[in-house]
Design brief:
The complex is a heterodimer of chains A (654) and B (321).
Chain A: H1 15-26, H2 35-54, H3 61-79, H4 85-101, H5 106-126, H6 132-150, H7 158-182, E1 207-208, H8 212-216, E2 222-228, E3 239-245, E4 247-248, E5 253-254, H9 263-267, E6 270-283, E7 290-291, E8 293-294, E9 297-300, E10 306-308, E11 314-316, E12 324-336, H10 342-347, H11 357-370, H12 373-386, E13 390-391, H13 402-410, E14 412-413, H14 415-428, E15 433-440, E16 443-445, E17 450-454, E18 458-466, E19 470-474, H15 476-480, H16 482-486, H17 489-501, H18 508-529, H19 533-542, H20 550-575, H21 580-595, H22 605-615, H23 620-635, H24 642-653
Parallel strand pairs in A: 13-14
Antiparallel strand pairs in A: 1-5, 2-6, 2-17, 3-8, 3-15, 4-5, 6-12, 7-11, 9-12, 10-11, 15-18, 16-17, 18-19
Helix pairs in contact in A: 1-2, 1-5, 1-6, 2-4, 3-4, 4-5, 5-6, 6-7, 7-20, 11-12, 11-14, 12-14, 13-14, 21-23, 21-24, 22-23, 23-24
Chain B: H1 16-31, H2 36-47, E1 51-55, H3 62-73, E2 77-81, H4 88-92, E3 93-98, E4 103-108, E5 115-119, H5 126-138, E6 140-143, E7 146-149, E8 155-160, H6 173-176, E9 179-183, H7 190-198, H8 202-208, H9 215-226, H10 232-247, E10 251-253, H11 257-273, H12 281-292, E11 297-298, H13 307-317
Parallel strand pairs in B: 1-8, 1-9, 2-5, 5-8
Antiparallel strand pairs in B: 3-4, 6-7, 10-11
Helix pairs in contact in B: 1-3, 2-11, 3-8, 9-11, 10-11, 11-12, 12-13
Classes of the chains: A alpha+beta (654), B alpha/beta (321).
Chain lengths: 654, 321
């Protein structure tokens, strides 16, 4: 163990900048990091600064080793892993804090700034917001400034360093832009960002139990945006189909998971009529494979690895870890699975034996009264509508047979309660039924003319199969709370539920501001984050590159980058004005060539002039003028017009 | 080095002190014939606040130069003839008991003057020499525990006779270093010698000469000389020269940082005396032998016979930036 030496305050010039750069680098991670890591970092930074200020000794190696081990174990205990974005950034933060405690020399500060750069970049793995770009710029500026401060002379002010770093960033920006535009994008990523399991994203799950969706209804988080090519369909038609659940265990509905089938085969089972609706969906990352589309999708981006499953649900080959945009064409009028084999039909009739007995009894009664399947469906919806069923975000807990206790005791529920009860009632009457999870409605952003679908728009509805016509969508929630469907979830929540939940009703102005922000964000997603292989290809064609491929793009990129480097070098060399003395020297050399006499080592201009007066053909006045002007220009104080004088007398030689 | 005659015609800052300086130089030139360069160097030395060592054979006008300088610059003058029995008290003075007042009264020695001619300084014992050298360094003397300030400006012009080696105590290098410049006057040429023979008596001329300036004006000129502009290439040049003296196989001991400082100060003063707009390479070359000659210790193996030759070798080898 080496004895810790005292610091000498030599880092005082650059350490505050390094600390500021590190803090800025950690800032976007703060909300994800456990409190103890943030606290540890701030404590170490403050500690290190005080050490430098007081020129005290750094903590001994043994203490540092113990601290480092403790922090590592702490990260391991918090995340039970060291890979992934969360544990990775936590480890980097801890490493920066520990490195601070042994930072003694400039070399150590280099390491710190490298960590800062890593942290800044790893923030992009979490999310790429619009403000990420200005953040990146400021972070890079600060890191560069800290870098320059390390090698700055004492008389150099922080403002000068900051300016230099600003200039360097300015030089780099066009290159970064060129790289962003021309670096070949590929459809499938080389690597996947490890999914951060520690931070759950809200969204729909693969299963549905009572209470699942009502917990979502409070989330204002964006699910996806939809830009329609034509007019926006009516709110009651905006059913965004996600996944289909058909297995019921008496309490929870579950599906088969994403099982993409042959899309063409599945499409052949669909008959569509009416006008097609074409639109583009920009889906926020869900960490799941489900792809949402307006009920019922008929055509979609084949390049996006999206396929249709047996239950007309769309899914992608791999989870959606990053925002994706895809084009879909849907038909609101459709018939699906008009022909369905007996075996499949039985799946949709399956009810667990012995569960929810009262419901099954009720179904028999109602069916007997109604007589036909359609009349029975109507009767059940009438029952929901006429009797005391309430639509609430705060459903009371349900008993062992949840459908029974919902239908006969509590009668208060959210969409999933109604969908679940309705599907059970249908199956009990031998009508094949299944549950569809997705979103319903959405808010139209008039400023951007796109639809915003939030997590609070999550919805569950049912589909029943009738012989000869196939699957029909039946939304029992519409029977209970028609305004939920007609105006969308947001409206109903704002009027009724919001007050009950104590959510402050946002003023109209705030709401409008929110919509503007959403519009800007959508543009950003479109233009910047959505700049993938398709957009790049399109842009390259627009630039006049026919059949763009990665080779051409790389060559263009290299050409541009080297061109820019050349341009910047030329600009810099043009801006560089040779010092006065050097310019004088260059003029004097011309004069020397004219005399035809070599200048010997250690010969002063006056001595040379003396020689030239005798040995060269030039007249002595000229020689004296040049020599005089040269001496004053090169060795005299600045400000004299000797250089002009010299230029004049040398030009007279020619 | 011949300084180009045209250079002296550069625009001058026409203030009274400047005019006085030019007048002083002209007067000196009339008394010390044909030694224009040496006179310029001696003036530069005083303007650079340095002490001057004149080393030459007797009868070449050493004393005359010192006296003329004092006269022309309007400085009080004392001459101390250094002999082997000279005591420090003979230089700095002594406290004498006064019977009338009943206490000791300080009788200032000859060192209390603005310009001291220390004639044949190498004849005195090191003890007496060091008394003078201390006064040169500190600008003050300590007698009987009292520190007494010497008048300002304070210059010492010392002479020594290089040919006469018997019974002398040559100044060691460390003490030679105290002198900014060492000059050699040399014989006058035939024309000047003739004028000397047929012309007026120099000593009578000296009495007729009026002071060209006041000591205050001299201080101002010193200030102006120190503020002379020295461009970066010439700082490089001085560094190169100094580095060369340290690395050359012909030189055992090169110039110290104090030597480099002396070179810069002397060059500035020389540029000022010659009315250059800044320090020119000529200024550095002109003062180089005088400033560096007595500070360099030639290597035993060197083929250069004199310090002047060695200095010229340095100047001829180092390129001017």
């Amino acid at each position: 163990m080496s004895k810790p030496r005292g610091t000498d305050g030599s880092l005082l010039l650059s350490l505050p900048w390094t600390l500021a750069a590190l803090l800025l680098a950690i800032a976007p991670h703060l909300q994800f990091l456990p409190l103890w890591i943030s606290a540890a970092f701030v404590a170490c930074a403050a500690w290190r600064f005080v050490i430098e200020k007081r020129r005290a000794a750094l903590p001994p190696t043994s203490l540092r080793a113990v601290l480092a081990l403790g922090c590592f174990l702490g990260v391991l205990a918090t995340y039970s892993s060291v890979s992934g974005v969360g544990p990775g950034s936590a480890l980097l933060t801890v490493m920066a804090a520990m490195k601070l405690l042994e930072t003694r020399k400039r070399r150590d500060q280099f390491v710190l700034l490298f960590i800062a750069i890593f942290l800044v970049m790893s923030a992009l793995l979490r999310e790429q917001y619009m403000w990420s770009l200005p953040y990146l710029l400021v972070a890079v500026l600060l890191i560069m400034t800290a870098w320059l401060r390390m090698s700055a002379a004492h008389q150099q002010t922080a403002v000068q360093s900051f300016r230099t770093s600003g200039r360097l960033v300015m030089y780099a920006l066009p290159m970064a832009l060129a790289m962003w535009i021309f670096f070949p994008r590929i459809a499938t990523p080389f690597w996947q960002v490890p999914i951060d399991t520690s931070s759950g994203t809200s969204g729909l799950n693969d299963t549905m139990s009572p209470g699942d969706i009502s917990s979502l209804s409070l989330s204002d988080e964006l699910a996806f945006r939809v830009g329609f090519d034509g007019p926006v369909p009516a709110a009651r038609d905006l059913y965004w189909r996600g996944l289909v659940l058909q297995r019921f265990n008496g309490r929870t509905w579950s599906g088969n998971g994403p099982m993409p089938s042959n899309s063409n085969l599945e499409r052949s089972k669909i008959q569509v009529s009416g006008d097609p609706v074409s639109y583009t969906i920009t889906l926020e990352p869900t960490r799941q494979q489900w792809v949402f589309a307006l009920d019922l999708p008929y055509e979609w981006d084949l390049g996006k690895k999206i396929a249709m499953g047996r239950q007309q649900q769309l899914s992608r080959e791999f989870p959606i870890d990053q925002r994706i945009a895809y084009d879909v064409t849907s038909y609101i009028d459709f018939r699906a699975d008009v022909e369905m084999p007996e075996m499949f039909r039985n799946w949709y009739l399956d009810l667990p034996a012995g569960s929810n007995p009262q419901t099954i009894e009720l179904a028999r009664q109602l069916y007997a009264e109604a007589g036909s399947q359609t009349a029975y469906i109507e009767a059940v919806l009438q029952k929901f509508n006429n009797e005391n069923f309430f639509y609430t975000l705060e459903p009371p807990p349900l008993g062992r047979d949840p459908v029974d206790s919902f239908l006969f005791d509590t009668r208060k529920g959210f969409c999933e309660h109604y969908a679940s009860a309705f599907a059970v009632l249908m199956r009990a009457a031998d009508i094949p039924a299944r549950i569809v999870l997705g979103y319903q409605g959405g808010e139209l952003n008039p400023q951007a003319e796109h639809l915003i679908v939030r997590q609070s728009d999550a919805h569950a509805w049912t589909e029943v199969w009738l012989p000869g016509t196939g699957w029909h969508r039946v939304d029992p929630t519409a029977a209970v709370a028609p305004e939920r469907i007609d105006s969308g979830m947001s409206g109903s929540r704002l009027s009724g539920a919001a007050a009950a939940w104590g959510i402050p009703t946002p003023s109209a102005l705030l709401h409008s501001l929110g919509l503007s922000w959403d519009a800007i964000n959508a543009k950003w997603n479109d233009l910047v984050l959505g700049y993938g292989p398709d957009n790049q290809n399109r842009f390259m064609r627009w630039l006049g590159m026919d059949t763009p491929d990665w080779r051409k793009m790389m060559l263009t990129l290299l050409g541009i980058v080297f061109g820019l480097i050349l341009l910047i070098s030329v600009l810099l060399s043009l801006r560089y004005r040779a010092p006065r003395a050097d310019r004088a020297l260059r003029l004097y050399r011309k004069f020397q060539l004219k005399t035809g006499l070599p200048l010997s080592t250690g010969e002063t201009p006056s001595a040379f002039a003396e020689r030239a007066r005798v040995d060269s053909r030039l007249d002595s006045t000229t020689i004296d003028d040049v020599t005089e002007a040269y001496l004053a220009a090169r060795y005299g104080p600045a400000g004299a017009n000797a250089l002009d004088e010299l230029r004049r007398s040398v030009s007279r030689l020619a | 080095m011949p300084s180009g005659s045209r250079i002296e015609k550069l625009p001058l800052s026409k203030n009274a002190d400047r005019v006085a300086l030019d007048a002083a130089r002209k007067q000196l030139g009339q008394i010390i014939l044909g030694k224009d360069d040496q006179v310029g160097l001696a003036l530069s030395c005083l303007l650079a606040r340095g002490h001057l060592l004149i080393e030459d054979l007797p009868g070449l006008g050493k004393t005359m130069l010192a006296q003329a300088l004092a006269r022309v610059l309007g400085l009080s003058f004392n001459r101390i003839q250094f002999t082997s029995d000279l005591l420090p008290a003979d230089i700095v003075g002594v406290s004498v008991f006064k019977q009338e007042s009943g206490d000791f009264q300080f009788q200032p020695g000859p060192v209390f003057a603005q310009l001291i001619l220390a004639d044949e300084v190498n004849r005195a014992t090191p003890k007496a020499q060091s008394a003078l050298l201390e006064a040169m360094e500190e600008q003050q003397v300590s007698v009987d525990g009292n520190t007494r300030q010497l008048p300002a400006p304070f210059f010492v012009v010392a002479t020594q006779n290089p040919a006469d080696q018997i019974g002398t105590f040559p100044l060691p290098e460390s003490q030679l270093d105290r002198f900014l410049m060492r000059l050699e006057l040399g014989y006058p040429n035939a024309e000047n010698e003739r004028e000397l023979l047929v012309g007026k008596d120099r000593r009578a001329m000296l009495d007729e000469v009026a002071a060209a300036m006041s000591p205050d004006a001299l201080v101002k000129l010193q200030q102006a000389a120190a503020n002379m502009h020295m461009s970066d290439p010439l700082v490089d040049y001085i560094q190169e020269l100094v580095r060369f003296t340290r690395e050359s196989p012909d030189i055992e001991i090169g110039l110290s940082p104090r030597g480099a400082l002396a070179l810069a100060a002397a060059a500035k003063a020389h540029a000022f005396v010659n009315s250059h707009s800044g320090v020119y390479p000529d200024d550095i070359q002109a003062v180089f032998a005088a400033v560096a000659g007595h500070r360099l210790k030639p290597a035993g193996s060197t083929s250069f016979r004199s310090a002047a030759e060695l200095c010229q070798h340095v100047l001829d080898t180092v390129a001017i930036p």
